[in-house]
Amino acid sequence: MAARAQHSGPAANGGGAPALLPLLLLLLSAAAIIPRGDGQNLVTEDVTVVEGDVATISCRVKNSDDSVIQLLNPNRQTIYFRDFRPLKDSRFQLVNFSNSELRVSLTNVSISDEGRYFCQLYTDPPQEIYTTITVLVPPRNLVIDIQKEIAVEGEEIELNCTAMASRPATTIRWFKGNKELTGKSEVEQWSDMYTVTSQLLLKVGREDDGVPVICLVDHPAVKDLQTQRYLEVMYKPQVRVSQNYPVQGLTREGEPLELTCAAFGKPQPTDMRWLRVDDEMPQHVVVSGSNLLISNLNKTDNGTYRCEASNAVGKSHADYMLFVYDTTATTEPAVHGFTQLPNSAEELDYGDLSGTGVLLNASTEALPTVQISNASIALHPDSRAGEEGAIRSVDHAVVGGVVAVVVFAMLCLLIILGRYFARHKGTYFTHEAKGADDAADADTAIINAEGGQNNSEEKKEYFI
After folding, report:
1. Which among 286, 267, 278 is positioned nearest to 302, based on CA atoms?
2. For residue 463, what pLDDT is reported?
3. What is the rounded distance in angstroms from the CA atom of residue 25 to the CA atom of residue 13?
4. Does residue 128 register a pLDDT over 90?
5. CA dihedral of residues 321, 325, 331, 333 (deg, nearest 10)
6. Cβ(449)–Cβ(442) below 8 Å
7. How far is CA 143 from the centre of its chain?
8. Are 347 and 362 in contact (CB under 8 A)?
9. Average pLDDT in the 83-112 region?
10. Which pLDDT value is given to residue 268?
């Protein structure tokens, strides 16, 4: 009506006003494409969809007055006008049409479909609102690249995980078994796609052999996307010595002793031997493979016996300290038989103690066939004197106890003697000496004593 009024006015004025008609039509078109707020009748929602899935666009009318609803693409081409589809794209399909809703689905969504889609309602004035389609692209490939397929314990290896061609950029997380680790990520953008690479530096030990390292992706387009690699770690032997006979008993003179050496490593140890530390092996000792047998123990067998094992990575050993007791020994000392000399604090975690005296000594020496980087080798002195010191401490305790008892007895005796002399202390007089004070000499004193010789048999007094 307004357009027609504008058109008839200029005709009456001689034809100068028709130029205003295109301007009015432009203003009406501009008003039609202004998005309306919540107070308008049109309602829609933004859509987020994974590439290749189906996106559904809904244009709804709160208070329907039978006005026409249409849907336009980002290029403002009409997709649907009421229930008619002018756009020749079969991926758009009508899901629902009524006076209050126009719902359209878009199948096999791609990046090119991303953008704003417009819902229009032909009212007076016209209404328009837009919905945004966001397309998510999951990583097309997830790969772990490991620097070394086979590592040696103590080495630091590098692992890289790459998530290619995703949108938005992915977040990469690292796990070793169930423990989460921290990596360093870099993001590269190619057009609308992102490639993310995460680097992980990992120092491996023997406990990491066979453990999976997992690269996990956090991305809104995928769930539980991950890949993993299993670590392969070579390590030096782990040696254990066990006492087969006597079982948890004293090593006495005349009795037999049997020891067994077991070694585990990667690769499996190929060389194993017995030796006596700081002395020659006794001639009557029988060594058969991993077993050592002494059929008749004597005092000369005392010492430290060592089992050594080696592989391509290094060498390790475990020590057994032998102390032969007399046949009369009946009690076993607190520490007997074995010594433990770990090469480093890390190797204390692998001490598997079976029985009462089996302890691990993992002192190692690297072999020239394989270079071990970042490995620290600590040598420990022989601890043969440990048990002898314990025995000496026991002897000192016994001697100290005997001395204490003797001192206590002497103190008691002194107290008794002191009390006895205190009770009998003073001057004692007898009747035999009466009258002797006036005598000129000893003979006269005896004769003049009261009672004299006559009374000597009648009255006597004895001092005991």
Report:
1. 278
2. 54
3. 20
4. yes
5. -30
6. no
7. 26
8. yes
9. 94
10. 94
